[in-house]
Amino acid sequence: MSDLLAARAQMAISLGFHIVFAAIGIALPALMVFAEARALRGGNPVYREIAKAWARGAAIFFAVGAVSGTVLSFELGLLWPAFMERAGPLIGLPFALEGFAFFTEAIFLGVYLYGWERVPPAAHLAAGVLVAASGAASALFVLAVNGWMNAPTGFTLGPDGAFEDVDPLAALANPFWIPNTVHMLIGAYQATAFGAAGIHAAALLRDPQHLFHREALRIVLFVAALTSILQPLSGDVNARRLHELQPSKLAAMEGQFATEACAPLRIGGWPSLTEQRTRGALEIPCGLSLLVARDPNARVLGLEAFPENERPDPRPVHAAFQIMVGIGSLLALLGVWGAWVAWRHAPRIAEHRRLLALLVVAAPLGFVAIEAGWVVTELGRQPWIIVGHMRVAEAVTPMPGIAVSLALYTLIYLGLAAIVVQLMRRQVRGVASWPPEDGS
Amino acid sequence: VTELADLLAAAMLLALIAYALSGGADFGGGVWDLLASGPRAAAQREAIAHAIGPIWEANHVWLIAVVVLLFAGFPPAFAEIATRFHIPLSLLLVGIVLRGSSFVFRSYDAPDARLRWGRVFAISSTFTPVLLGVLIGALSLPPAAAASVSFRALYVDPWLQPFPLLVGLFALAQFAFLAAVYLSVESDGLLREDFRRRALGSALAVAVLGVGVAALASATSPSFAADLLGEGTSLALVSVTALVAGAAFALLWRRRWVAARLCAVAQVALILLGWGLAQHPYLVADSLTLHEAAAPPRVLRLLLIAFACGSALLLPALAYLLRTFKGSLLGPASAHDAATRVKGAGCGTDRMVE
What separation in angstroms does the CA of A347 have from each of A113, A114, A342, B34, B199? Predict the structure, then answer.
C-alpha cells in the first residue's frame, strides 16, 4: 500500500469514526435538555429520568468524541503537513474558535453530569443548554474549514502560486460554510433521533408498558420527523450550490459524464468508466437540470468537461450519494408516520408493533447516511485537498511507513467502537422500570 | 510582526502552563492510581477518580488550544514538528485516546470490568506524560547535522535521545507531584497522609531529575543551556524556581496544604516559563524561529483577539466549574465537601447521576 493511500485511509477511518461520536455529542445534549426542561416545567418526573439516561449516553459519546477529535487535530499535521503549512493561516482561525466552543462544551458538560445535586435546577438546565449550543457551534467552525477546502476564498495568488493577502474572515465565510453546516447539523439531530428511537422502540417491544421508553420515544419521534422533512430541503440548497461552484463533484454524484442540457436525474445505476456513462439507472428526463437550476433545459457540466487528472472517481461518489438520498427518503416517510402515531395515539404507541420494528431496523440508517454524505463530499473533492490549488498527493507527509500507523489506529478505533456498543447496551438494559417498583 | 508573534507565543505558553497545571495533574492522578498501595489503595483510587471526574475533559482542551494556536499562528513550525516528531506524537495520541476513553468506560462499565479499565487508565496516564516531556525536550535539542537521510536519522534520532527522554521522566515526576499535592488538599485523615507521603517522595524525584536535566542540557544543548542557566533574568528565574520548589516541600512537610499547593503550582509554571524563555526566539531549537514561522500579521492579530475574547468568556466558566466541584481555590475545600468526596468511595462514579 502506498503511503498516500495509507494516509488517506487513516484520515478516512479517523473521520468516519469521529463523525458518529461528534454527531451524537452534538445532538444528544439537545435532546436531554429538552427532556429536562419538560421535567422542570412540571411535567411527569419521568422526563428527569430520561434526561439523566440521555446524559449518560452523552457522557460516553462526548468523551470518545473528544479524544478522537484530538487525534484529528494532530493528524492534520501528521498526515498532511504541507497542507497545514499552506492553509494554516487561512483555516487556523475557525479551528481556534472551535477550540473555544469545545472548551465551553467540556466545562458545562462537567457541570451537567456531576452537578445534578450540586447546582440549582435552573443553572443545571442552563449548563445543558450551553453544552448543546457549543456542540452546534463546534460543527459550525469545523465545517467552515471543510467548506474552504472545497471553495477556497480569502486570498490572492502570488506569482509563485503562494497565498497572499490572506483574510481568515473571508476564508471563514466561504460559500459552502452555512449550507454544509446546516446539512450536517440536521443530519446529526436526525441520525441521533432515529438511533435513540430504535433503542427505545426495541425496549418497548419487550415491555410495552414501560413509561420511560414510551415518553422517550415520543420526544425523539418528533425530532426525527422534523429533521427528516427539513433535510431534503437543505440537501437541495447544497446541490444547487455545487452546480454553481463545484460542478465536478455534482457530476460525480449524479453519474453525469456528458455535458448536456436537459440532464436527467439518475436514480441508482453504476458509472462505467470504460463506457463513460452510468449504466442501469432509472432516469427522470431533465430532472437534474430542473433540480439544480430550476430550468429543465439548463446545461449541466459532465465529468468530460474537466481534465482527466482533475476528475473525481464517480463510482464511489455516485453510489454513496444514492445511499444517502435513499436513506433520507425512507427516514422521511418513517419519521412522519412515527410522529403521527406519537401525536395521535400517544398512550398506545407500543401497540403499533410494526412501526416499532421498523424503527429498530432504521436505528443505524441515519449514521450510514452521514457516512455516505461524507464519502460524497470528500471523494467528490478529489484529487484536490484545496480545490484548484493543491492536490492531496502534494500534501502527504514525507514519512514512509504510514501503513503501520494506519493499522494501529484501525485497531484502536475498532476496539473503541466495540466497547462503546457494549456499554450502550449495558446502559439501556440498566434503565429501571417506571414508575419505580420500590417506590423510591 | 515580531511583537505579534511573541504575543501569540506567550499565549501558547500560557495555555501550555494551564495544561500542565490541570491536565498534567490528571495524568499524575493516573500515576497514583497505578501506584495505589497499602490498606487504603481502593480509597486512593476512588479519591483520584473523584477529583478528576468532572474536570478532566475541560482540562484536556488546553492541549487542543496549544496545538490550534501553533498551527494557525506558526504553520511551518507545525508542519515541521508533525513531520519530524511523527512517531512520538502518534504514540502520545494513542495514550490520550486510551486514557480518556478508559476513564469514562470505567465509570459506565460493569463493576467487574472497572478494574480492567482502571489499569488501562493508569498505564496510559503514566506513559503519556513521558511522551509530552520527550516532545518538549526534543524541541530544545539542536538538530544534528544530518549525516544520512535514513528513516532513523530523519524520524527517530531527532527525539530518541537521552535528553528528551530525561525531560520525559522529569515531566512525569512533576505531574505526579502536582497530583499528589492537589489530592492531599482535597482529602483528609489517613488518606491525606498517603498523598502527602507521595507528594514528598515525588518532590525528591523532581529535584533529582531536574538537576539531571540541567546537567544533560549543558552537555548536549549548550546554546539552550546557556539561555536557561546563563546570567541575568534567566538565572534569577531558575533560582526562584528552586526556592519555590523548596518552599513547596517545606510546606508539605509542615502540612500547610493550601500554601503547598500554591507553591507547587508556581513551581510548575516557573519551570515552563523558564523553558519558554530559554527556547525563545526559537520554536524548534536552532532551526525555526517564531519570526520565521509566523503567519501574516493579520492572522496573528485575529488569533490574539480570539484568544483574548475566548479567555474572557471561558475563564469565568472554568472558575465556576472548579468552584462547584473543588471549593474555593485559595482556601481548603470545605470539610463537609472533602468528607463526602472521599467517603464517596465505592460509589463515586454512580453518584454523578443520582
Answer: 30, 33, 8, 51, 59
Q: Which of residues 387-416 of A touch B (CB under 8 A)?
A: 397-401, 405, 408, 412, 416
B350, three cell numbers: 454512580
For the four alpha carbons of B312, B313, B317 and B322, in that order, the dihedral sign comes to negative
ipTM above 0.85, yes or no: no
C-alpha cell at A78: 501528521
* CA–CA dist A62, A20 (Å, integer): 10
The per-residue pLDDT of chain A, averaged, comes to: 91
**Chain B within 8 Å of A60 (Cβ-Cβ)?**
yes
Peptide bond connecting B332 to the previous residue in cis, omega within 30 degrees of 0: no
Residue B334, chain A, CB below 8 Å: the answer is no
Which long-range contacts (C-beta less than 8 Å, at least 24 apart) are formed by A210-213?
A210/A350, A210/A433, A210/A434, A211/A44, A211/A46, A211/A434, A211/A435, A212/A46, A212/A49, A212/A50, A212/A53, A212/A431, A212/A432, A212/A433, A212/A434, A213/A431
CA dist list (Å): B114 to B103, B105, B110, B122, B126: 9, 8, 6, 12, 18
Residues A369-427 have pLDDT tens digits of: 999 999 999 999 999 999 989 999 999 998 898 999 999 999 988 988 888 888 888 88
Q: Do A399 and B155 touch (CB under 8 A)?
A: yes
Q: What is the H or E stretch that residue A284 is in?
A: strand A282-284
Say if A118 is an interface residue toward chain B (CB within 8 Å).
Answer: yes
Whether chain A has a CB inside 8 Å of the CB on B110: the answer is: yes
Place of cell 486570498: A155
Q: Residue A147's closest CA among A395, A378, A312, A318? A: A378
What does pLDDT average to in each consecutive run of 10 residues of chain A (440 residues)? 91 94 94 93 86 90 86 89 90 89 89 90 94 94 94 89 88 93 96 95 89 91 94 94 93 94 93 92 93 92 94 95 96 93 83 92 96 96 93 92 91 88 82 56
A162: which residues sit within 8 A by CB, 6+ positions away?
none
Check if the beta carbon of residue A366 is closer than 8 Å to that of residue A187: yes
Q: Please write the tens of the pLDDT for every residue from A264-296.
A: 999 999 999 999 999 998 999 999 999 999 999
